[in-house]
Each structure stands twice: as C-alpha cells, then as structure tokens.
C-alpha cells in the first residue's frame, strides 16, 4: 500500500456499481485507507453479498439503486445522510454497454447506454451535490469513463456517452469550484475485470488482439484503476480539477480499434 493508511479517515465515499469489478476494487481500496463506504447497483442480492465481504475491511452500507431513476437516487442520498451524515467522495463507476457496430444499435439499445452512462452519471452527481457537496462546501467526484480519445468504433453509443461525461466533468468542475468541489475523470483502457466476462465471442478474441496491440503488451488491472481514483480523491491532487487521467497503457495514443473491429467483422 503506497498511500498513508489513514488517508481517508473520517471521509465518506459512495461508489456506484460497487458490487463488482472495478467498483468493488475502488471500494476495497478506500476502505483499506480508512474511508466509510456506500455502494449501490441494481441487483440487490450480489450487492448485499459484496457489502458483506467489504464490511470485513470497514463500514460498508449498500442500497439497491438504478442510477437512471432520479427518485431512487434521492432515496440513496437520504440513506447516506441517515447512516453517515455526510458525503465526501462520489465515484461514478456504474456503467456498461454492449459491443455492436453503430448501424446495428436499436433505438432502445442506444437509449439504454446513454441513459446509464451519461444521464445516470448526471443525476447522481447533481443529487449528491445538492444534498452534500454544496451545503458542506466540499466534495470530490471521480467519473469512470473509458478511453474513447479517438472515438470508439464497435461501441459508438458508449463512446458518445462517455465523451458527454468528460465534457460534463469540465462544466461541473468550473461551476462547482466555488463550493470547493473537484470533478475529474479516470479513463481506463481494457481492464481485466468482471465486466469483460459479460462479453461473448468474437469479442473475447478481439480482447486478445487488443492486448497484443497495446504498447505495454497487456491489459490493465483493477488495482491500477483504483490507485488512480485514490490519487484524484485525495489531497495529493488538490489543484487538479476538470481533467482526465488515462489508465490504459497508452491506448489513447496508439491503438487502432477500427483495424481490430474490421478483423472481427471479417472472421
Ligand atoms: C469492442 C471492444 C471490447 C473491449 C472493451 C473494453 C472497454 C470497456 C469495457 C467495459 O466497459 S467492461 C464493463 C461492461 N459491463 C457491462 O457492460 C455490464 C452492464 N451492461 C449493461 O447493463 C447493458 O449493456 C446495458 C445495455 C447498459 C443495460 O441496459 P438495460 O438493462 O436497460 O438493457 P436491456 O433492457 O436488456 O436492453 C435495452 C436495449 O439494449 C439492447 N441490448 C442490450 N444488450 C445487447 C447486446 N448484447 N446486443 C445488442 N443489443 C443489446 C436490447 O436488445 C434492448 O434493445 P431492444 O431490443 O429493445 O431494441
Ligand atoms: N473492464 C474494463 O475493461 C473497462 C470498464 N470500464 C467501465 O468501468 C466501469 C466498471 O466496469 P467493470 O467493473 O469492468 O464492469 P461490471 O459490469 O463488473 O460493473 C458494472 C457495474 O455497474 C452496475 N450498474 C450497471 N448499470 C447500472 C445502473 N443503471 N444503475 C446502477 N448500477 C448499475 C452493475 O451492477 P448491477 O448490474 O447490479 O446494476 C455493476 O456493478 C463501467 O462503467 C465500465 O464501463 C471502462 C473502461 C474499461
């Protein structure tokens, strides 16, 4: 552990999508550094199980919540208020999409991905800011997006949604600086996590190709994303807001996704 063991002592964090994968790893890292944590996601049973495991490291509450539903997010804010009385850090990690060429995405599929990744992130940010960050005159938001620096062929819906979140981050960072609220993004490349298991062939083969194409020759690890979140969540980054930190082994500068997508299409 490279950060001070009490870095987040007395701090309260909400990690959306904290029941699995990257969100679970972020919650785990925050708890190990003294934070009190709340996690939410849609599926109650695995969420409860994750909270039980995480509670071995420190206080961890959970509540089922679909981030696309403002009323559910309001109830989550009330619960955090009654359990912990404050919120210092929001990690907007919940999200996802499905691989598809743009022409094959249905209207519903497009809307599901935009609602989850862009609208959901906005609802949670605004509601947590109104309940906690603005009245407290302090807060920190870290948005988990994806590397879509050069577009995202094969996942155009999520590329558009995450670009929206990146721009929203720049706007909120400026509007809320006066309330001592920082807002930043972490943009992972391909990370070995539960999320990748949701993809079937031929995407699995594509993932191997993407690994070979990566200049570091590998996919990323959940801890590497969590470490970036810890930095942005901590006073070590106190003069940093409105930015994006890539955790992608250089994919944002180098990878040729269109070539890889074409390879899958012709196989
Ligand atoms: C190609 C490169 C691969 C490497 C990528 C590496 C970078 C990124 C990695 C990750 O992000 S890993 C994390 C991934 N985890 C997830 O994606 C899990 C969560 N995902 C979801 O929950 C869904 O994708 C969702 C669509 C956002 C869920 O929304 P919802 O629950 O509302 O969906 P549904 O009601 O089931 O469907 C709505 C609509 O969407 C269509 N759809 C859903 N899945 C697919 C699919 N696999 N293929 C095509 N279409 C899909 C579904 O059919 C519905 O549309 P209609 O049929 O009604 O038109
Ligand atoms: N793994 C990777 O390579 C990369 C992942 N990312 C992003 O990082 C984040 C975490 O990914 P990862 O851990 O790998 O994947 P997971 O699929 O394991 O995590 C997604 C989490 O989001 C929750 N979630 C999804 N939709 C909603 C919703 N509407 N409301 C509340 N919670 C929701 C899910 O729980 P539930 O189903 O119970 O709602 C789940 O816990 C995602 O945003 C993902 O797109 C970005 C780049 C790369």
UniProtKB/TrEMBL annotation:
Q: Which InterPro entries match?
A: NAD(P)-bd_dom_sf, Peroxisomal_t2-enoyl-CoA_red, SDR_fam
- Presence of the UniProt keyword S-adenosyl-L-methionine in the record: no
Q: Mind listing the GO molecular function terms for this protein?
A: trans-2-enoyl-CoA reductase (NADPH) activity
Q: What is its EC number?
A: 1.3.1.38
Would you indicate the residue range of the signal peptide?
none
The catalytic activity, as recorded, is:
(2E)-octenoyl-CoA + NADPH + H(+) = octanoyl-CoA + NADP(+); (2E)-tetradecenoyl-CoA + NADPH + H(+) = tetradecanoyl-CoA + NADP(+); (2E)-dodecenoyl-CoA + NADPH + H(+) = dodecanoyl-CoA + NADP(+); (2E)-decenoyl-CoA + NADPH + H(+) = decanoyl-CoA + NADP(+)
List localization entries. Peroxisome
Q: Which UniProt keywords apply?
A: Fatty acid biosynthesis, Fatty acid metabolism, Lipid biosynthesis, Lipid metabolism, NADP, Oxidoreductase, Peroxisome, Phosphoprotein
Can you tell me which family this protein belongs to?
A: Belongs to the short-chain dehydrogenases/reductases (SDR) family.
Q: What does this protein do?
A: Participates in chain elongation of fatty acids. Catalyzes the reduction of trans-2-enoyl-CoAs of varying chain lengths from 6:1 to 16:1, having maximum activity with 10:1 CoA. Has no 2,4-dienoyl-CoA reductase activity.
What does the record note on quaternary structure? Interacts with PEX5, probably required to target it into peroxisomes.
Report what the protein is called. Peroxisomal trans-2-enoyl-CoA reductase
């Amino acid at each position: 552990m490279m950060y001070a063991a009490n870095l987040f002592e007395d701090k309260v964090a909400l990690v959306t999508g904290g029941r699995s994968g990257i969100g679970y790893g972020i919650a785990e890292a925050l708890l190990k550094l003294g934070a009190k944590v709340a996690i939410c996601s849609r599926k109650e049973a695995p969420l409860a199980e994750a909270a039980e495991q995480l509670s071995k490291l420190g206080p961890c509450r959970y509540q089922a919540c679909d981030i696309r539903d403002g009323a559910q997010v309001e109830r989550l804010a009330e619960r955090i208020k009654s359990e912990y009385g404050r919120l210092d850090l929001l990690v907007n990690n919940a999200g996802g999409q499905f691989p598809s060429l743009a022409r094959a995405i249905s209207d519903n599929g497009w809307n599901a991905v935009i609602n989850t990744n862009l609208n959901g992130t906005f609802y949670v940010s605004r509601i947590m800011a109104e309940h906690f960050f603005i009245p407290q005159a302090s807060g920190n938001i870290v948005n988990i997006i994806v590397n879509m620096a050069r577009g995202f062929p094969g996942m155009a819906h999520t590329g558009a949604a995450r670009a929206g979140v990146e721009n929203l981050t720049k706007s909120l960072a400026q509007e809320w600086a006066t309330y001592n609220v920082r807002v930043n993004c972490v943009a992972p490349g391909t990370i070995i996590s539960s999320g990748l298991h949701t993809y079937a062939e031929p995407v699995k083969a594509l993932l191997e190709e993407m690994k070979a194409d990566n200049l570091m020759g590998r996919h990323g690890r959940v801890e590497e994303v969590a470490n970036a979140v810890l930095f942005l969540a901590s006073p070590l980054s106190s003069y940093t807001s409105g930015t994006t930190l890539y955790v992608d082994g250089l994919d944002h500068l180098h990878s040729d996704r269109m070539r890889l997508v074409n390879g899958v299409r012709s196989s």
